[in-house]
């Protein structure tokens, strides 16, 4: 019996039309190639940038001419560059703080309160995501002109905080929506005042979302050009500095800065994704 | 024993105009196990949430142990609740969950640990004290929620559909366990459920609700034997509902004209005038089928009909009888000594249904039908 079964299976295998198997095989080959192309399209430029940051030659031409860390030491002795990094850190830190201070209460208001025009309020808050940075930049520039603000890093902070508000509110609001309201009711039921409930129950459950959002916003602010372009005064942020030096041609030094930015961004983003990831559903 | 909860003419209308609770008054004695029973949307959960303080009534008052708590926030009321989804805190261990109420109350740590151990002991969860809620089974979570709610020894324990998230087997066990817990703790339990069996098995008294109003309050056997409306009769168990007119009242007995027949029922506290339309409800197991009408008791009501079908169900067989009046009447036949299906009445055979007067429950017919 057993032997008959086996021979049957083998027969069935060979009996399948050859053309079908070829089509199946080449179909999956095609998909693998396509996926490879997409990845290459996304990451080849980044790979080139990283590789050339270690290349000895001053010009960006193949073939590669040997390994060096010169560009990195040059980068660390460039005062303008270091100042730009400092400015970027300053802007990102305060923009993130400001957007959290405004965004978290706004997310709570959206989740908890019902007030007339709530839908409109939500749409208005989310709009900047769809709005090009150029528009945010120009409109804020106009506003600052009207009010009489001088452009500086602080105006850049205001601009970034505004643009990032949409991200913050969306993320925190999404987390609050998934937080069962009965949990806070249980806390109140067990004698906790609203403030105790917030610190003992609500905050521990949305903490990860807040930190994750802050990290995402930090990287977004750190890389931002369009809004910064319109709103900055004499001081440059890092992307602005890179952009301005590029007009004199790409130097391997820029590649070194790029490599470091990529490294830091990847670490921050992986960390924030890990924090925003839901703990195992109970 | 005074009443521990007094609800006086509670009314709750939600924004949007839905009146969830409409003029509900209720007194609950200390130590009672009271169940609010009704289909979803009947307002039972809203009543519970108003007692807990999560909703505030538009009208009426709530008194807890004599004190008016209508305006008090939930954290100032000495009631605790077991939530339908348990609402355990996912970032705390089992013992932190259970001890939360004491920690908020500022009880010293060593005493918290002591009481938490006792509370977990009560629900046999001591071995899981350091687990997180998401590492527990549904039944275990339910017991954590229970011990978290009783650790502060509230005046009243509120249970919102406590068994609905459990599977069938576990649910039956927990019915008994909850009942035992109630006896051991001596607390007042107020439970909400849509499951009539749960309500009948577990409670001292059941409050049947219909569209935001109280349809009937009574002990489980009260509700079963003397439902006060068709709604209650059909919501709890199976009932035959017949409508007729009062012909004559004499002492405790009333005579009712039903179709071409006269039936006798016991008044049971109702006052009827002659000619009043009246509803009769008769439980299927309180009627019997007779092959020979002469063998019936002297006072029994006799209704003629033909057998439509008989469904064999093991210990009983349920027979549907087409009465001469056109109504269908269900009779449960007990099969104590024989399960031979050949002994059961056959389709189409003429039979007589016999019902003793005290098994005919009556109430004034609603509307005309």
Q: Which secondary structure elements does this structure contain, and how are they paired or packed?
A:
The complex is a heterodimer of chains A (282) and B (369).
Chain A: H1 2-15, H2 18-53, H3 70-76, H4 79-112, H5 118-130, H6 133-147, H7 153-178, H8 181-189, H9 194-223, H10 226-231, H11 238-246, H12 252-276
Chain B: E1 3-13, E2 19-29, E3 33-37, H1 44-52, E4 59-64, E5 67-68, E6 79-82, H2 94-104, H3 109-122, H4 138-150, E7 156-160, H5 168-185, E8 188-193, H6 196-202, E9 205-210, E10 213-218, H7 220-225, H8 230-235, E11 240-250, E12 253-258, E13 261-266, E14 277-282, E15 287-290, E16 301-312, E17 316-323, E18 328-334, E19 350-355, E20 361-364
Parallel strand pairs in B: 3-8, 3-9, 6-7, 7-8
Antiparallel strand pairs in B: 1-2, 1-4, 4-5, 9-10, 11-12, 11-14, 12-13, 14-20, 15-19, 16-17, 16-19, 17-18
